[in-house]
Specification:
The protein has 257 residues and is an alpha/beta fold. The protein has helices at 12-15, 26-39, 53-63, 72-95, 124-131, 155-165, 195-201, 212-225, 241-246; strands at 6-10, 46-50, 100-103, 135-139, 141-144, 150-153, 170-175, 181-182, 185-186, 189-190, 231-235, 253-256. A hairpin with a 5-residue loop joins strand 5 (141-144) and strand 6 (150-153). Helix 3 (53-63) packs antiparallel against helix 4, helix 6 runs parallel beside helix 8 and helix 7 (195-201) packs antiparallel against helix 8. The model has no long low-confidence stretch (mean pLDDT 94). The chain binds Isopentenyl phosphate. The site of Isopentenyl phosphate has 17 residues, from helix 3, helix 4, strand 5 and helix 6. Residues 12, 51-52, 56-57, 60, 78, 82, 140-142, 152, 154-156, 209-210 line the site of Isopentenyl phosphate (IP8).
């Protein structure tokens, strides 16, 4: 199948108010919708991923033990919170005329011993969406493991796996910071062999069960070492960066690889 042009992940820190439980950042979501509708050129193929922010992470933190959730109410609460966030984003994107089609990862992915195996990812609905002119969108999720456990699957993992499997031209992570920041300075470019060094230098953020910026950088490392092309971390809360990215212009952020 034809490669996709972009896999873009919207981080929960950008699309929700992370310190306020179950509160979307509607201003950012609506602006992204507008920039997407203005920036996508005809024929471009795009996959969207969104994170959990103060929806999924808020619920997961209450129930997660040893990276697993065993309480049925906890599993259902995490799924329900992500469903609610997906619905808010979907409604906003549809309102600007974007044919976004939400796909539920827990319904098409099974983990194996905590690991994501793309062979166990029923990818065809994503491919059919793309071939049909739709924009498939998936969120981080609570997913079942073949061993019987239930775990959190980060949107970062999903984004890099989809980018690899769909041969993406660009894997971009929109966050609430400008990119990799070291001592208050933006790192504009990171080479593949520098990734391990940078992921050790980046701290984690409270309230995030899936690794924050360090996790993102690790996922990008996996992606590039398996043949992924280009990756970027940028600030999705800053106006016009998303639109510039879609138009193929250089964006302020950290380019990796
Ligand atoms: O925010 C986590 O996705 P992420 C999703 O992309 C849940 O790491 C359910 C917490």
């Amino acid at each position: 199948m034809a490669p996709v042009d972009f896999v873009i992940k919207f981080g929960g820190s950008a699309i929700t108010h992370k310190e306020l439980p179950l509160t979307p950042n509607l201003e950012v979501i609506r602006r992204m919708a507008l920039e997407l509708s203005e920036g996508i050129k005809p024929g471009k193929r795009l996959v969207l991923i969104h994170g959990g922010g103060s929806f999924g992470h808020y619920e997961a933190l209450k129930y997660l033990k040893d990276n697993q959730i065993s309480d049925p109410l906890g599993i259902a609460a995490v799924r329900g919170s992500m469903l609610a966030l997906t619905k808010i984003i979907t409604d906003s994107f549809l309102a600007t005329g974007l044919p976004v089609f939400a796909i539920t990862p827990s319904s098409c992915i099974i983990l194996e011993d905590g690991k994501f195996n793309c062979a166990k990812f029923f990818l065809e609905p994503v491919e059919r969406c793309l071939d049909g002119g739709l924009i498939p969108m998936l969120g981080g999720d609570v997913v079942f493991d073949r061993s019987g456990s239930t775990r959190i699957l980060s949107g970062d993992t999903l984004a890099q796996q989809l980018a690899l499997n769909l041969d993406a031209g660009m894997l971009a992570f929109g966050t609430d910071v400008d990119g990799i920041m070291i001592n208050g300075q933006l790192v504009h470019k990171v080479a593949l062999e520098e990734i391990a060094k940078y992921s050790k230098m980046i701290g984690s953020r409270a309230g995030d069960v899936t690794g924050g910026m360090a996790g993102k950088v690790r996922e990008i490392g996996n992606y590039l070492s398996k043949g992924g092309k280009h990756a970027l971390i940028f600030n999705a809360t800053k106006p016009l960066l998303l639109k510039k990215l879609l138009l193929g212009e250089k964006v302020e952020g950290t380019y990796i690889g």
